[in-house]
Design brief:
Length: about 375
């Protein structure tokens, strides 16, 4: 996909606040309101203390944790209160969580991944009740709902094009990918196009599954692939369509001493950066949008709807390509520092209106 859309299980990293009932509350200043407010044209007192629900399909890995941090940060800056409903990769539970958010009369709902089949009925119910909905990587086609996506085809193209250049236009590729997620399906389109036009690059193996231990499971599967192709030159590179896949593959390759194999991933977190900066790691590059920015932007568009503003059906976030060559060799950097070395990273003003900035100032008082 947010992290979108997979030790590895990072449910507790999502703000460290997961409750046993499958949701997390993060308090902020301001009293909670029980119903959506009509637009006043100023976006000030009518938007104070809003209750915001984030319904996630799964919270796995540091990307998801940083995405949720971004949602929490922006919500609190606007004086709201966030509750996270974690569905643990269970679409039926996600549908139930969405119904719970509607029945509990949240003022606005954010959706992280999921499928139209699981969510469309509940989303239509929310819209009918005048509860605004902003979705991230969920491919919902419900009038009035704004969908955010990361520019997934561009991310895939960026990594694949560099893979092809580094490989000299020929070699054997292992693809790690999983169906059933909107961002993955978009990334697959770019992959197929790339392979169709680069006939000297051969896919010799493909696997991938989103589990509660995705990185560890991927590592075990990659170890089996390495045993099947034990000789130098058998595998040129690994294209991983998700950072959890890249982590597992890189660890397997590094532990096997197969340093000639390079890994190209998608998505970025602090943990990912640490691996990419390690000169011993086969993971050399990734394309991504700052996960915190994704969360921040999603909240901004939700507040625009709460304000009564019109928002577009689809918002595409522009990714950047991050390679080891662009990073310092004498110190470890974090995603908060990455903009110093990679142009276009982080600090996006997308969806950031003047009245939202004013609302932030008022919420501080």
């Amino acid at each position: 996909m947010n992290k979108w859309v997979l030790s590895v299980l990072s449910l507790t990293l999502a703000g460290g606040l997961l409750a046993g009932c499958g949701k997390t509350e993060t308090a902020s200043s301001g009293a909670a309101a029980s119903a959506p407010a009509a637009s006043t044209g100023s976006g000030s007192t009518s938007l104070a203390g809003k209750k915001i629900a984030l319904v996630t399909q799964l919270n796995i890995g540091t990307f998801s944790a940083q995405y949720i941090d971004g949602v929490k940060e922006q919500t609190e800056k606007l004086g709201g209160k966030l509750t996270v409903f974690n569905s643990e990769n269970d679409l039926a539970k996600m549908s139930s969580n969405l119904d719970a958010a509607i029945n509990q009369k949240f003022d606005g709902i954010l959706i992280d991944h999921g499928t139209a089949e699981a969510l469309e009925s509940g989303v239509k119910k929310a819209v009918d009740k005048k509860i605004p909905v902003i979705a991230f990587d969920a491919t919902l086609q419900v009038p009035g709902v704004t969908n955010l996506e990361q520019g997934d085809q561009k991310m895939a193209q960026q990594t694949l094009e560099q893979l092809g250049k580094d490989a000299g236009g020929k070699g054997n590729i292992v693809k790690i990918w999983v169906a059933g997620f909107a961002p993955m399906e978009r990334r697959q389109i770019a992959y197929k196009s790339f392979m169709d036009t680069n006939k000297d690059l051969k896919e010799i193996a493909a696997f991938g599954a989103a589990t509660n231990n995705t990185a560890l499971d991927t590592q075990a599967q990659m170890e089996a692939i390495l045993k099947k192709y034990p000789n130098k030159g058998d595998i040129t590179a690994v294209w991983a369509s998700w950072d959890e896949f890249a982590k597992g593959a890189a660890r397997a390759i590094q532990q096997a001493g197969r340093t000639e194999i390079k890994v190209y991933g998608i998505d970025m977190s602090d943990e990912d950066l640490q691996m990419i900066q390690d000169p011993k790691s086969p993971w050399v590059a990734s394309a991504a949008v700052d996960p915190k920015d994704i969360g921040r932007i999603q909240v901004r568009y939700l507040y625009q709807k709460l304000h009564g503003d019109q928002t577009q059906d689809t918002v595409v976030l522009d990714p950047v390509y991050v390679s080891r060559d662009a990073l310092p060799k004498d110190k470890q950097v974090t995603t908060d520092q990455l903009a110093q070395f990679v142009k276009g990273w982080g600090g996006s003003e997308q969806g950031y209106t003047d009245w939202l900035k004013d609302l932030e100032k008022q919420a501080k008082k």
